[in-house]
Specification:
Layout: H1 7-14, E1 16-17, E2 19-23, H2 28-33, H3 39-48, E3 53-57, H4 71-84, E4 87-91, H5 97-110, E5 114-117, H6 125-146, E6 149-153, H7 160-170, E7 175-180, H8 191-198, E8 202-207, E9 210-213, H9 215-218, E10 222-225, H10 235-245, E11 249-252, E12 259-261, H11 300-324, E13 327-328
Parallel strand pairs: 1-13, 2-3, 2-11, 3-4, 4-5, 5-6, 6-7, 7-8, 8-11
Antiparallel strand pairs: 9-10, 10-12
């Protein structure tokens, strides 16, 4: 660093500026049950919570949290986000080239920089990989032409090495990886091992927290989402590795009340011991503010209330992890 650089500039260069963003999935009960809650309300709440961008799920036929397929909805949100100075990533699922081409066009119209997806192919892991590679090789040039990055998520289907092989086989700069902190658990892969495999290709992340639930408590071996900070994922270790690699846009995802079964075709991979570390079990009885296995036992009003409580607690924990690691967050 030059000896005569102004002190303010020296301080700025020595800080680790991070762009915290938030995912709409963490407010799915608000979207479903709270009157008047829509994508504009969601963006305004993100401002209140100190975020600088959003991820928005378009993951159904009616573009889920956008509220509909009409172009005026896309244009309204784009204008609103531009006024806030917010970044945008949008979500879909599936890799069919026709579908992906449509959603890439939507992403461009909305002003998104990236489009998240995951495979919906079935079969053996090898068959799923081959089909996913064919699809994404066909649409990566479309993404390049539109200025959008496709981010393929480790979404309950592929291990880290499998996901890396897909991206490397396509070999296109417009195809990168979204690393989800907890989804490797569904294939019984250690989250740190998954990150080892995909780190060179990571463009986006989902920062979340999980616990494991025993078969006798959930009917089958299960992963359950909990408020960030209340689970067993190695949040600090994973985040530090990502920061050291240069990632600066980190997406917070509140997954309270989310559950996913472990794929029966998978066996624990190297370094995984059920009941220990990132695979530690939660012990009943389960406080619904912490862990919910059956949402039907709660009223819509309770779901919204508890989701909001988990959001606030989790956001505070998220910010603590980042600041403890030396990150500077927006005021």
């Amino acid at each position: 660093m030059p000896r005569h650089m102004p002190p303010k500039l020296q301080n700025w260069l020595c800080t680790m500026q991070v762009e915290p963003t938030i995912h709409s999935f963490g407010l799915w009960h608000h979207f479903a049950h709270k009157p008047g809650f829509d994508c504009i309300t969601y963006a305004d709440l993100a401002v209140e919570l100190g975020f600088k961008g959003i991820s928005l799920s378009l993951n159904n036929a009616n573009y889920r949290h956008l509220g509909g397929r009409e172009t005026w909805r896309m244009d309204r949100l784009r204008t609103h986000l531009q006024g806030l100075g917010f970044s945008l990533e949008v979500d879909t699922s599936g890799t069919d080239p026709t579908h992906m081409t449509e959603l890439l066009g939507v992403a461009q119209r909305m002003g998104a920089g990236s489009l998240r997806t995951y495979t919906r192919h079935s079969g053996t892991p090898e068959e799923m990989m081959a089909a996913t590679i064919r699809d994404l090789a066909a649409v990566a040039p479309v993404a390049r032409d539109l200025g959008i990055v496709i981010v393929l998520e480790n979404h309950e289907d592929f291990t880290g090495p499998e996901l890396a092989k897909i991206v490397e086989a396509v070999g296109h700069p417009s195809l990168q990886i979204l690393y989800d902190y907890g989804n490797s658990q569904m294939v019984l892969e250690d989250p740190e091992a998954a990150l080892d495999a995909v780190l060179p290709h990571v463009y986006s992340v989902h920062f979340k927290d999980h616990v494991m639930v025993r078969p006798e408590d959930a009917g089958q071996l299960m992963v359950a989402g909990v408020p960030v900070g209340d689970g067993v994922l190695p949040l600090r270790k994973l985040t530090k590795r990502l920061l050291d690699h240069g990632l600066r846009r980190i997406t917070f995802e509140n997954v309270w009340a989310y559950t996913a079964p472990i794929r029966t075709s998978r066996v624990p991979l190297a370094g995984v011991t059920l009941g220990e570390g990132a695979f530690a079990f939660a012990d009943p009885p389960f406080d619904p503010a912490h862990l919910v296995l059956d949402q039907s036992r709660l009223s819509p009003e309770q779901l919204v209330h508890l989701e909001h409580k988990a959001l606030l607690c989790g956001t505070a924990a998220f910010r603590r992890v980042l600041t403890d690691l030396g990150c500077v967050l927006p005021d």
